[in-house]
Amino acid sequence: MVDFARVQKELHECNRDFEVSGIKVMPKSDANLAHLLGTIPGPLGTPYEGGSFKIDINLPDGYPFEPPKMQFATKVWHPNISSQSGAICLDILKDQWSPALTLKTALLSVQALLSAPEPDDPQDAVVAQQYLRDYPTFMGTARYWTEAFAMTSSLGVEDKVLKLVEMGFPDALVRSTLASVDGDENMALEKLCSG
Fold first, then answer.
1. What is the pTM assigned to this prediction?
2. Cβ of 107: how many Cβ atoms within 10 Å?
3. Exposed (0-12), middle (13-18) or buried (19+): which is 71, by Cβ within 10 Å?
């Protein structure tokens, strides 16, 4: 059974120093502490800089003795992250996990992975090949994906609502969906399309 007291404590600690780390973790719904949404900022000096990346976190029954299951909800172009599913290739999310680690340390490790790709141990072979064979194109593609998927649009809320309503979604549904994803237009669209 998931240790929910520990999860509560971890959420509190993680969000307490949000101003410093930029890392945030929230329950996806009030009723379920085993399904969380993490947010990490793209590291400075990388093609991910300026992006805000959402990570879907599912805690297995054995947490903290089993690693959290994490995958990117934001599309990202990186050798160790699947461009299709968002799956992450990172040892501490598999066999190197320890109960001494926390959600925050796991998210910091994911953030560090964005800074230091390991193309020789890829999750996405296509991206890894591009990284190794055509680095400038890799950098351009990673930057483009960051701008397209990880940067909150500079549109105001009303502009976002109007844009989504013009796509045929009801106004009230658009507003509640935007609110549930912190105004992230791309995530709102994904939710509306999958709902």
1. 0.77
2. 23
3. middle
Residue (of 116, 72, 70, 67) closest to 94 by Cα position: 67
Catalytic residue flag (residue 193): no
Please say whether the beta carbons of 106 and 88 come within 8 A.
no
Edge-to-edge order in the sheet of strand 24-29 = 24-29, 32-41, 52-58, 69-72
Residues of the chain with CATH 3.10.110.10: 4-150
- Among 25, 57, 81, 89, the active-site one is 89
Asked if residue 64 has a cis previous peptide bond (ω within 30° of 0), the answer is yes
- DSSP per-residue string spanning 80-108: TB-TTT-BB--GGGTTT--TT--HHHHHH
> Using one digit for the tens of pLDDT, what is the confidence trace for 82-101?
999 999 999 999 999 999 99
Chain mean pLDDT for the chain: 90
User: Dihedral through CA 15, CA 57, CA 68, CA 11, nearest 10?
Assistant: 20
- Region 4-150: CATH code: 3.10.110.10
Please name the amino acid found at residue 85: S
